[in-house]
From TrEMBL:
It is found in: Peroxisome membrane. Residues 164-193 are annotated as: Disordered. PANTHER family: MICROBODY (PEROXISOME) PROLIFERATION PROTEIN PEROXIN 11B (EUROFUNG), PEROXISOMAL BIOGENESIS FACTOR 11. Residues 171-182 have a biased composition (Basic and acidic residues). Keywords: Membrane, Peroxisome, Peroxisome biogenesis, Transmembrane, Transmembrane helix. It comes from the Eukaryota. Its main location: membrane. One of its GO terms (cellular component) is peroxisomal membrane. GO terms for biological process: peroxisome fission. InterPro entries: PEX11. The chain crosses the membrane at residues 73-96, 141-160. This is Peroxin PEX11-1.
Length: 249
């Protein structure tokens, strides 16, 4: 019986890929974030402060930022679901890394909840006097979440970087015991470790760049608005790459 060759699915063109991307919630939010960051760069570079054009651009930026808040309004549910899964032992992590991940997702969930409390003020429907203090506390939790994310990714990168050597030793022993089995069975340990390290490095870059936003907002860092906008572009492109690939599946 003849075996039919596997036909590879044709890759869609760039326009179709972009359409698939923006038809996802994550893709649409990342697109708005990229537009917002580019608009902030334009204001810092080309438009004199205090002009009518500046006010128009700032209005557009604030509206885009408000739109993005609706995309993540219920995102705290996913964060607390992650915490529930970690508390239930759903993931095979060590105790220390589990605590780091619990802290990371808990802080991110608290940030989103506190931000949601101020949505009516941002809309102008119900202005409140406690809007700014709540946002400051929210951004503190966001800062803690990003810091724990970067810390956890660095620890994970250090752990996975030491794994290839041990894997190589064990693989050599297996080859000596059964050479024929090693020839037929593909070794995916190295590729999985490489993919994991790449994901951790992307996480460090993206969350490390985003760390500047809450740091400046709460007054813990002194960085120019232009630098924040540039790092915002970087983090959006890095984190949006995986969402782009996932949208094509």
């Amino acid at each position: 019986m003849a075996v039919k060759p596997l036909t590879q699915k044709p890759k869609p063109n760039l326009v179709r890929q972009f359409s698939n991307f923006i038809h996802t919630v994550t893709g649409l939010e990342k697109t708005c974030r990229l537009i917002q960051s580019f608009a902030q760069i334009v204001i810092q570079l080309n438009i004199p402060p205090g002009s009518t054009t500046t006010a128009q651009w700032e209005t557009a930026i604030s509206q885009i930022a408000l739109t993005r808040r609706f995309f993540r309004f219920f995102a705290f549910i996913d964060c607390f679901s992650q915490v529930y899964g970690l508390l239930g032992g759903a993931q095979s992590l060590g105790l220390f890394m589990t605590l780091v991940e619990i802290g990371r997702w808990s802080c991110l969930g608290l940030y989103l909840v506190l931000e949601d409390l101020t949505i009516l003020h941002a809309l102008g429907v119900h202005p409140v006097a406690w809007n700014t203090p709540v946002l400051v506390e929210a951004f503190k939790f966001w800062f803690y979440s990003l810091a724990l994310s970067v810390f956890g990714a660095v620890c994970g990168l250090l752990f996975t970087s030491s794994s290839p050597a041990s894997n190589k030793t064990s693989n050599n022993e297996k080859k000596k015991e059964n050479k024929n089995a090693e020839k037929t069975a593909p070794n995916t340990d190295d590729s999985q470790a490489k993919a994991q390290r790449t994901a951790l490095m992307k996480r460090i870059v993206a969350d490390g760049c985003d760390l500047l936003i809450p740091g400046v907002f709460v007054g813990w860092m002194q960085i120019s608005d232009l630098m924040i906008s540039v790092t915002m572009v970087i983090s959006t492109v890095v984190s949006g790459g995986d969402a782009w690939v996932k949208a094509q599946e």
